[in-house]
Structure formats: structure tokens, C-alpha cells
Amino acid sequence: MSTTDLTTEDFEKTITSNDIVLVDWWAEWCGPCKQFAPVYSKVSDAHPDVVFGKVDTEAEQELAAAASITSIPTTMAFRDGILVFSQPGALPEAALQEVISQVRDLDMDDIRRQLETQQQQ
């Protein structure tokens, strides 16, 4: 699957209406972002069941601020609408593949219980 540009208008709907969503936060002027883009695109082709979104932090400054993006590129992973991974820096292909494997293997019932416990405290 190719990557999808995400904007403020469709970000939340994309996150909440898909099982697994990866998001690459980037900017045109960012050298490491440009180096990471082909890796991200290549890995997206190997995982058609995962949505690979891209957010241009220059065009979507409010969205980037709402997501507390302070360094780019930053990769985030959402599962069932819940942020389960966030890491700044360009990931090597093997590391990105590993993130996807780990996100797939998560026990989401356990994650929801943990979140509920945190919210109650």
C-alpha cells in the first residue's frame, strides 16, 4: 500500500477507523526525513493491511503541535485508535518492520486496561 497524506481534517478519522496506522511526521526541508521517505514507502508496500500516513509538519502546524511533535522525522503507531509507539529519528527498515510486528502482537485488551487504570488515578 502506498502512503497517504494526512491533514487536520482526516487525521482522527484515519486513526480511529483503521486497525493499525503508522504516521510519519516530516517536512520538505528535513534531510533525515527525505532519507527516511523511501524506507517508509518500501515498508508500506509489504504491509497492505496497515495504513501508512504522512503529515507535512509545515502544512499541518496545528496538527503537529497537537501531537507534540518536537523533532522530525517522528514515527508514530496507532492500534485501534490508541497511540502505542512514538519515536523521533529516521528508523532503519529492519527497525520499522520490527515496530509493525510488535504493534501487531500487542494485547489490546491489556493496553485498554492499563489506560483505564491510569485515567482512574
Automatic annotation (TrEMBL):
InterPro entries, alphabetized = Thioredoxin, Thioredoxin-like_sf, Thioredoxin_domain
The UniProt GO MF terms for this protein read: protein-disulfide reductase activity
Q: Where is this site: Contributes to redox potential value?
A: G31, P32
- Active-site residues? C30, C33
Site feature (Deprotonates C-terminal active site Cys) residues: D24
For this UniProt record, the keywords arranged alphabetically read as follows: Disulfide bond, Electron transport, Redox-active center, Transport
Q: Which domain of life is it from?
A: Bacteria
Q: Show the disulfide pairing.
A: C30-C33
Q: Which family does it belong to?
A: Belongs to the thioredoxin family.
**Name of protein:** Thioredoxin
Q: Which gene encodes it?
A: trxA
